[in-house]
Every structure is written in C-alpha cells, then in structure tokens.
Amino acid sequence: MTKFFNAGSALALAACLWSGPALADEDDVTAWRLFVSDHAGPVVNVIDALDGDKLDTFTIKGPASLYRTDSGQTVFAVQGEAGAVSVISTGIAFHDHGDHGDIDVDEPKLLDAGFNGSKPAHFVERQGNIAQWFDGEDKVRLFTEKAALEGKPEIREISVGAAHHGVAAPFDKHAVVTIPNPEDASKRPIGARLVDLDGNPVGEDVACPGLHGSAGSGSLYALACDTGLLLISQDGDTPEIRHLPYSDKLPEGSSSTLIGGKGLQYFVGNYGPDRIVLVDPSEKDAFRLVQLPTRRVHFAVDPIRSKFVYVITEDGQLHQVDVLKGEIAHSLKLTDPYSMDGHWSDPRPRIAVAADKVFVTDPLNGKIHVVEAQSLEKTGEITAEGKPFNIVAVGGAGKAHEGEDHEHAHEEGHKHD
Predict the structure, then answer these.
(1) Cα separations (Å) of 388 from 226, 336, 368?
(2) In 10 A of CB 251, how many CB atoms?
(3) DSSP code of 363?
C-alpha cells in the first residue's frame, strides 16, 4: 500500500511521530489504526492511520461489513453472503486509572473466535455485551467481547419467533429484540420486545411499525420506526422503552438508518434520500432537518469533535454538519460522483474518523482520501489494492509504561476512541 501525503503533512508527521520502543521519558503514546474491507475480495486490510502504512492483511471468507466495539479492542467482520463472522483483535487496548489512561499497542490478530450462520447482519455491542443477528435464523446470538478476545465465546441463543431482517440490543440481563411481521416475516418488523436471557418476554410489547435502523448514543439505544424512534434506557435492573414520535412540523417521511453521537447525546437519521434529520431526545422540539445538495451516500459521527457529523453525497462532496447549529458548516469536492441508482450494495464511499483526520474510501479508484477534520481540507490520500470499501477506525492516546513497545509516541495524554 502506497501513501501520498503532501509535503507539509509529511514534515509534520516526521516531527511528531517516532517508531520503536518507548524510552523512559517518552511515555505518552498515540496509535490509530484503520480496518478496511474490500468490496471485491475476502480481505480486511489494517492501515496505520498516522502514516498510511499497511500493517497487515487478514483473509476471511467473503466481503465484509465492519463493526468496532466501544472499547476498540475488537473489530467484527460480518460476511453476510459467506455466512460468517470473523473477529479481529485490533491490538490497541486502554486501561482507565482515573487520573490517566494506559495504552497497550500490540500486533493486530485474526482470532479463532469466529462463527458461522445463515445471513449474518446487524451487529450491536453495548458495554461489552454483543448481539449478533442472523437474517436467516429464528434466533439471535449473545456473548461478550471479553470472551471473544479469549477465543472462546460462550454463546447464548434467544428465539426471535421467525427469521426476519431485524436487530437485537443487548443489556446485562436482558435484550430488546424485534418482532417479525406475523403475516409476512420478509416484511419489516412491527415492534420491539424486551426479553430476559432465557428469551422470556418482560412487560408489554412496544409497537414500532416499519422498524429498520438502530444506533446507540450515550446511555440510550434507539430503533427507527415509521412513527418515530423507540428510545431504550436502563436506570435500574430492567431496561425501559419509550416512544418519541416524529414532530408534526416534519414533512411526511421517516428514518431507516441511524447513527449515534459520541460525547454528545444525539442521533442522526436519513429522512428521504437528500435530507438528514438531527434528533436531540432531551429537547421538546427534538427533530431538525438538514437539506443536502444531492442524495446521501454515507454518514459518520466525529467521536472527538462531538458536534460534527460528516456526510458524503452522490455528487462526490464531503459535508461537515454542525449538529448544534443544524446546518452544513463546510463542504469539499472529494470524489467522482457515485450514483445511488443501482443495487444498495454497490461499491460506494464510506467514512471513518481517526485523530484529527477524516478518511473516505473511494472504491472505484482504489484509494482512501485523507481530510483535515476541523477545516475539511484534503491533506493526502492512501492508495489501496482492490476496492477499499467499509472502514472503521480505532485508537487514541495514553501512557505507556517503560520498556513496552509502541508504534508511535506523541505529545498527547488523553484517550479518544
């Protein structure tokens, strides 16, 4: 993999990065890694986000959607067509000590904790608990990230009534699962059900017609419905579900894809092909629309600069949306046009944020664009074999103890993941 950073970026990287074992007086370490799947082949490439070098390539069974956990210790490669789920240890781990965080940086590894199933789809992780959904099965599988890292996940299966395209949100002693349409399970689910770990219903089912799309933000997990959002929270032993109806001020429509804010509690959803809706559950007027110039291709939140969301549209523009102001702050022409006509799974750009950069895959041109997150100026690009597609970023900064090996030392002392 070849990198093409501009001269200014190269000089800045040379000045601030150092590879090799950390010296006794150089214990502030920063490490960021990109995990990139290929649309055309069964591989996941691992790239150093700070200098663009390829660290490793893992061969899996099929093209994958990638999901990282909140801890950043694992990335799950969900291969729907191949019927497989692979587990990758990112090699980056943080340990919270109150007044500071320690960082351990090791080699990434493809673990022996993967498993097979019929049409694996939605992956949800909350506080170390994982729910892996399979569209072709009438049950969801629950396990913990800790067990997966140890290579021997103890999987608990919960019945969901019938095979359908749904989702499950895991909690410590419960799960929220979607309810299949009783007339035709191939249609969208009709509601959500709270169950215990034996699959027994707890409380009343909650209606959610046309359920599709889910995301977590802070202590909340949200499911998107034709009528609004279902917000799931847990203050005591048992999770609670409440309905947040769409505002009467919104035009006709609904969300079917959600992402959740980091640092600030909010959700962003599609609302028609060329608009997004910003959702602040704490506000009386919870919904605000943002008009896009053309149809949305992909969006992602900024986990560090919490008020920003990045959206790429089919005209090849990358937009920085300020969720506090409810408007597009900056736009940048970045790629060739990627039409949203055609199959939903055609190769199109995807976005990830690492440190102070936004990374955008450009699968038809075999590259990853590198953009300054704050100013939205392009600073370079990384060339890649194949068609780089889905991308997630893992990393941050912390204290490294004397004698430990790390990829990069940097004058930063706080974790971002």
Answers:
(1) 33, 15, 7
(2) 9
(3) G
Phi, psi torsion values for 9, nearest 5 degrees: -65, -40
Residue 407 pLDDT exceeds 90: no
Q: What is the torsion angle, in degrees rounded to the nearest 10, for the CA atoms of residue 360, residue 363, residue 367 and residue 369?
A: -20
Q: Give the angle 96-99-104 at the CA atoms, nearest 5°.
A: 35
Q: Which stretches does DSSP call E strand in 226-322?
A: 228-233, 240-245, 258-260, 267-270, 275-279, 287-291, 296-301, 308-313, 317-322
Instruction: Give the range among 28-32, 97-101, 195-199, 284-288 with minimum mean pLDDT.
Output: 97-101
Instruction: Please give the domain boundaries of the chain with CATH numbers for all domains.
Output: 1-65+78-100+292-417 (no CATH), 117-259 (2.130.10.10)
Distance CA 208, CA 225 (A): 5
Please, what is the average pLDDT of the chain? 90
Eight-state DSSP code of residue 25: T
With beta carbons less than 8 A apart as the criterion, state whether 334 and 365 touch.
Answer: no
Evaluate if residue 376 carries a pLDDT over 90.
yes
Q: For residue 200, give every residue at least 6 positions away whose Cβ sits within 8 Å of its Cβ, in sequence order, or none.
A: none
CB 320, CB 328: distance < 8 Å: yes
Rounded alpha-carbon distances, angstroms, from residue 3 to 7, 10, 171, 189, 394: 12, 10, 42, 45, 19
Neighbours of 99 (CB within 10 A): 5
DSSP 11: H
